[in-house]
Amino acid sequence: MNKIPATVITGFLGAGKTTLIRHLIENAGGRRIALVINEFGDVGVDGALVKGCGDEACPDDDIIELANGCICCTVADDFLPTMQRLLDRPVPPDHIIIETSGLALPKPLVKAFQWPGIRTRATVDGVVALVDADALAAGRFAHDEAALAAARAADPTLDHDSPIEELFEDQLACADLVLLNKADLVDAARLEEVEDGLRQEIRSGVSIVRTSMGRIDPAALLGIDAAVEDQIDGRPSHHDGEEDHDHDDFDSFVLDLGELDSAEPLLAALNRAIAEHDLLRVKGFLAVRGRPARLVLQSVGPRVQHHYDRAWQPDEQRASRLVIIGQSGLDRNAIAAMLGAGPVPA
Ligand SMILES: Nc1nc2c(ncn2[C@@H]2O[C@H](COP(=O)(O)OP(=O)(O)OP(=O)(O)O)[C@@H](O)[C@H]2O)c(=O)[nH]1
Fold it and tell me: How far is CA 275 from CA 114, 141, 320, in A?
């Protein structure tokens, strides 16, 4: 029996995974693709944005959202049953694309394909890692040398990278293909330097392709045919040998903001909150009084983007909800107060 190929899309928060997947679906060329989307909070931003493309190559039934934060930690409870159901369908998909959350480790997910009920029916065609060229050029994944030196002076046994750096390295070390995305935001000389740095992190033979808005021919990405589950033990991870890992280094919560009189004050406050609290990622939808369309709001590091995407549907509640993600220790109530929301339950 032919195994159904699955492509794992990994990459740090906001690298452009959802944007890439939309592009893949819109250019699927008749291939029936099922999507498994894993993200933070129950706001369902990624799923809603992909569904928004309304492409017949990917009916809404084929988009499955796992909103538990990190697919790598709940493989047995969430991911395996989801895969079983997909594979058991009377007409299974031609290809499965799995978007992991930006904080997920790809290796435990690939290992799930070694499970008996899965390995005979599906295979990991390839792991694609997206890298945010803009963030990399700004040094957001490099460790802060001064802070690390100070910490080591206080504790000479300290020998680990920052949580962001470790995650970044794990995602790259697992990749069969690396997309250096957001190439449009970085000049050619800097892009060259960024690419040279990336080569130190990836396995030999892995290509780096520069992309903007995830625009790449699906043929270059689907059909790598790497059977990654058979060789995953050879791909190093900072978490090798650990029974379990956790994501205590990061924190996320959802803010409910109701309907807004105007978006501008919130946008201004958000810029301040990102800078003061070093927020990694904010995304969600806003309902603005008098506006029939919903406002999509996204920030990746300091870069905030927003646009009205489509009208609120009659069966949808007009409400503003944002997922906020940062490193652990976020002062949730201070952030909520800045953005005009009430206290956030712990
Ligand atoms: N300028 C530019 N913006 C991009 C590019 N790719 C994505 N973006 C923007 O970056 C933001 C994040 O993109 P997403 O596709 O949601 O990123 P993601 O990796 O799915 O994010 P998470 O699932 O939250 O980790 C959005 O505002 C996109 O419009 C690109 O190549 N160039």
Answer: 43, 17, 22
